[in-house]
Inverse folding.
């Protein structure tokens, strides 16, 4: 047998082995992680989820350390008046309302956004520049939108959608509308949001309205979470505690260690049994009954419970829990069908979360008792 024939036979064997491997991987790819959720081998979403699992592991969303890509030079409030009023406090509270429609003509926001039609971009206001990128339509007050800023925003978006692929893969948004304000008065006048607000989201339209500040990146990630995670539930509305808990978890992944210290005193409080009881906590439709420190406690508790649900098992259960809610199942049934026993009631979730904090989470220093009266009396 001459050399040419041998080489041809070797090539045939090699091609056959490669084809066999591809077929095996395709057939094996019908299962999303280890249990619970099955998709067909031809389902592109399943392939994306499998890629995400192999790449980012099974311990929860946004587990990759956030790369310090450096703050964009102009992403800070330059004038002294705006800088004095900018929200710089290390707090997750940036917007009460996830559902919001801004009216460029100055009229009041629409109350029922879920039935509102999907409009094109609003007219460009005077004093704003605009730019169209791969993932955004950006309006920016006062300053131009140069290539460096566009790349900065694209990098945030690219990393974010990879972190939450099981949800973002179903998004129907081709581009996110981002309106960047450099003055609080302009932001509040356009969005009708209160003076303490730094950002807000219109989930229906895929729009983010945000003030440029030192916390821009983490605030922006919080709002993107509402766009993509809450958008997964359409036309239903994600429970408020789950929506905000997931958004704060993603937000904290984008923060520096110093910016995360706001949670330490709240964790100490939770570990000492002082928290919002779960029937009230999970039933909240808005945060209007909460004020001052109570609102911060509510956000911290939402983050802590969602963090626990993601760490209790793998991302499969959390995805299935979210999907059960999307399919219209009541909270307790959705929880039980995703996590099994003992998660058959809200009270059981409360006990399990407390047991986790007591047994597995390092205790924080005792909080100061002087802060107990700062809110509306809802801290337990």
């Amino acid at each position: 047998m001459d050399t040419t024939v041998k080489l041809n036979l070797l090539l045939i064997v090699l091609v056959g082995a490669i084809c066999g491997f591809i077929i095996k991987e395709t057939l094996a790819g019908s299962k999303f992680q280890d249990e619970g959720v099955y998709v067909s081998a031809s389902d592109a979403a399943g392939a994306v989820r499998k890629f995400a699992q192999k790449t980012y592991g099974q311990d929860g969303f946004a587990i990759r350390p956030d790369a310090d890509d450096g703050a964009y030079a102009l992403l800070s409030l330059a004038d002294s008046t705006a800088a004095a009023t900018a929200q710089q406090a290390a707090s997750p509270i940036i917007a009460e309302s996830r559902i919001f429609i801004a009216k460029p003509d100055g009229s009041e926001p629409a109350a029922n956004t879920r039935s509102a039609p999907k409009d094109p971009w609003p007219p460009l206001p005077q004093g704003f520049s605009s730019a169209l990128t791969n993932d955004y339509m950006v309006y920016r007050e006062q300053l131009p939108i140069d290539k460096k800023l566009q790349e900065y925003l694209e990098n945030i978006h690219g990393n974010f959608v990879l972190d939450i692929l099981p949800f973002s893969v179903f998004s129907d948004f081709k581009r996110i509308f981002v309106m960047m304000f450099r003055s609080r008065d302009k932001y509040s006048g356009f969005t009708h949001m209160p003076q303490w607000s730094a950002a807000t989201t219109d989930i229906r339209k895929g729009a983010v309205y945000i003030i440029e500040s030192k916390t821009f990146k983490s605030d922006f990630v919080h709002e993107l979470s509402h766009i993509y995670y809450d958008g997964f539930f359409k036309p239903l509305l994600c429970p408020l505690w789950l929506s905000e808990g997931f958004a704060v978890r993603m937000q904290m992944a984008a923060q520096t260690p110093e910016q995360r210290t706001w949670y330490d005193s709240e964790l100490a409080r939770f570990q000492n049994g002082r928290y919002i009881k779960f029937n009230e906590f999970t039933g909240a439709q808005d945060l209007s009954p909460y004020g001052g420190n109570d609102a911060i406690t509510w956000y911290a508790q939402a983050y802590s419970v969602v963090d626990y649900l993601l760490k209790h098992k793998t991302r499969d259960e959390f995805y299935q829990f979210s999907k059960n809610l999307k399919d219209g199942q009541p909270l307790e049934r959705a929880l039980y069908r995703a996590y099994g026993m003992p998660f058959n009631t809200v009270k059981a979730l409360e006990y399990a979360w407390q047991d986790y904090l007591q047994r597995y989470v390092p205790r924080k220093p005792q909080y100061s008792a002087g802060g107990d009266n700062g809110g509306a009396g809802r801290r337990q």
About this structure: Confidence is low (pLDDT under 50) at residues 21-59, 77-89, 99-117, 369-377. Strands lie at 31-32, 37-38, 128-132, 136-141, 176-181, 199-202, 207-211.
